[in-house]
Amino acid sequence: MAVEPRVAPAPAGQTGPRIVDVRLEGVTKRFDDVVAVDDLSLEIEQGSFFALLGPSGCGKTTTLRMIGGFEEPTSGTIFLGDRDVVGLPPYRRDVNTVFQSYALFPHLSIFENVAFGLRRQGAERKGLRGRVLEMLHLVELEGMERRKPRQLSGGQQQRVALARALVCSPRVLLLDEPLGALDLKLRKQMQLFLKRIQHDIGITFIHVTHDQEEAMTMADRIAVMNKGRIDQLGSPDELYERPETPFVAGFLGVSNLLPGTVAGADVVRLDDGTQVHVAAEALQGRTGRVAVGIRPEKIRIDGGDANTLPGTVSESAYVGVATQYIVETGSGRLTVYVQNVRPGAEGAAPGDRLTLSWSPDATFVVDSTEGSA
Amino acid sequence: MGFLHRHRGLTPYLLLAPGVVWLGLFFLVPLGFLAYQSLESGSIDFGYAFSWSWGNYWNAIRNYRGHFERSLEYAGIATVLALVVSYPVAYWIAFRGGRWKNLLLLFIVAPFFVTYLIRTLAWQTILADHGLVVRTLHHLHVLGSTGRLLNTATAVVAGITYNFLPFMALPLYVSLEQIDGRLIEAAEDLYASRWKAFLRVTLPLSLPGVVAGTLLTFIPAAGDFINAQLLGSPTNHMIGNVIQSKFLELTDYPAAASMSFVLMAAIIVAVLAYARAVGTEQLTG
């Protein structure tokens, strides 16, 4: 059973009334027999950097395409601001898209690519040139305006696509896996670049990605999608520290999930009898079978925290900043990261017996994974 | 094998050789012979002799100017008609054909399974004085009660259009089919209506197909004589008819050869003018 997504509270520090730029109400999209998006409701606040995160086939791109007007929902309503846009073609919607493949017009110069939307909007000629050049300056492509798209590198084409969409000052910018085709180094640069631009111009960005690290780096709020639904919606740290479903726990970072049974208001008993203390709110009223989750870096091998579990090291791998251990316990196999704070390796070796410990605050609880695995 | 290994640079030339030899033997040599013939004088009975008779060219232009002009005019009109008819069809197949694409393309090529002559003869029946088309047009008063289609310029142009349609439709289809649908989505995303997206994105990107199709249609159509012969009256005859009769019936080889060269020159001039107008970039893709 998936936990119903909660409507996001306003980010701290924001003043004034909350303005919603995009609102989806009960949106469903069916392709023949396949339900791509299943009764999805969502609000995206003005000025936020919002990520739709999920594996391929989870419905994130379809959701984006419905907001852009390239697909119509089978049922449900989509609002841009307070205007119902269902049935409106893309050119009547105040949104622009950065496509996965960039979709730059190969027959037009970079200048004309960027000017395309402005010309269709009937922008006056005098101002147009200045706005295009200003936008090319913003994406650091001055002097490229006479070139054709094929004469540019992938990263440059990416920035042209961004400039072309942003120059029209849309209410919302849609980004469909825009960094997917770039190599790792360029992708990291572009992540920070996009984040900075979004911060500077303050337009709402909706970013579709399957890369959890990318979503965490860039977005203020993330909706984790799974099988056409939102599993959980929240800020990156909420999703990481307090995942509410096994899917979210597994999709964002590495999680250790230990099966157990609720045995009190703040206690879960693991199958080997170990009592694990958790924060009472983490249980959220669950009873019966659950899974207890701990992030690998929150586990200590030198004792000292309230929850303990004895085990034997089966593997260890030194990865520079940390050492990764695989520890076999009576409740299953756990992954543990120990930061190498001091020089000289003094960690455990395979075969060593040790006691793992972690804080109740660092413990989260999700529905049992039994039966779904 | 050892030889090729030692002289790797030769491989492309060896691969080119059959084509070059073929072209040389069956195109350049006959063309040279034709040029030689076009400057001969004499008669079939006493034999022709080479004599730098540039007068043959002068006579060809002076006596058959109307035929040359008619050839270019009919070919031009037929090319435009073929473009207008094929473009929507090719567009529809490329973007809406789905899994029927190949079958629909087969339908376009289907007339080629019947020989050229038979296809054109079929149009004689279609356009015949008491045929369905003429009767219907009489009925609708589009055509006067004595009006006819067969043996008119309309029939000749219609025949050429029909016969060369696949040469137009196939390159158009290829260029339209290659267009990435996301470009059209991007145009609509950037506030272009469907029509504007077509004008600004689809049409310019299909221009290489338009250019290829018009050349493949216009060039052979300008030299055609079958359609004029079977569907037109002598007043509709094209230069192809004259060349054909000079060569085969009157055996006036120098006149026929010089006319062939004048036609070739006229076509080259027309194509160059066209290329200048649409931009040479479209010719090379």
Which short descriptors sum up this protein?
heterodimer; A: 373 residues; alpha+beta; Rossmann fold; OB fold (Dihydrolipoamide Acetyltransferase, E2P); six-stranded mixed beta sheet; five-stranded antiparallel beta sheet; 9 helices; 19 strands; 24% helix; disordered N terminus; B: 285 residues; mainly alpha; MetI-like fold; two-stranded antiparallel sheet; 13 helices; 74% helix; 3% strand
Written account of the structure:
The complex is a heterodimer of chains A (373) and B (285). Chain A has 373 residues and is of the alpha+beta class. Among the domains of chain A are: 20-94 and 170-241, Rossmann fold (3-Layer(aba) Sandwich); 255-367, OB fold (Dihydrolipoamide Acetyltransferase, E2P), CATH 2.40.50. Helix content of chain A is 24%, strand content 33%. Chain A has helices spanning 60-68, 110-120, 125-138, 154-166, 184-201, 212-218, 236-241, 246-251, 280-283; strands spanning 20-31, 34-45, 49-53, 75-80, 83-84, 95-98, 172-176, 204-209, 221-226, 229-234, 256-262, 267-270, 275-277, 289-294, 307-318, 322-329, 332-339, 353-358, 363-367. In chain A, the strands form 4 sheets. Chain A has a 6-stranded mixed sheet with strand order 6-7-8-3-9-10, sandwiched between helices. In chain A, strand 4 (75-80) and strand 5 form a beta hairpin. The longest helix of chain A is centred in the middle third of the chain and has 18 residues, at 184-201. Chain A is elongated, with a radius of gyration of 24 Å. The relative contact order of chain A is 0.12. Residues 1-14 of chain A have low confidence and may be disordered. Chain B is mainly α. In chain B, helix 7 (153-177) crosses helix 9 (194-222) and helix 9 runs antiparallel to helix 12 (253-278). Chain B starts with a helix and ends with a helix. In chain B, strand 1 (40-43) and strand 2 form a beta hairpin. Chain B has one domain (64-284): Orthogonal Bundle (MetI-like fold), CATH 1.10.3720. Chain B has a two-stranded antiparallel ribbon. Chain B is built from 13 helices and 2 strands; from the N terminus they run H-H-E-E-H-H-H-H-H-H-H-H-H-H-H. At the A-B interface, strand 6 and helix 2 of A face helix 8 and helix 9 of B.
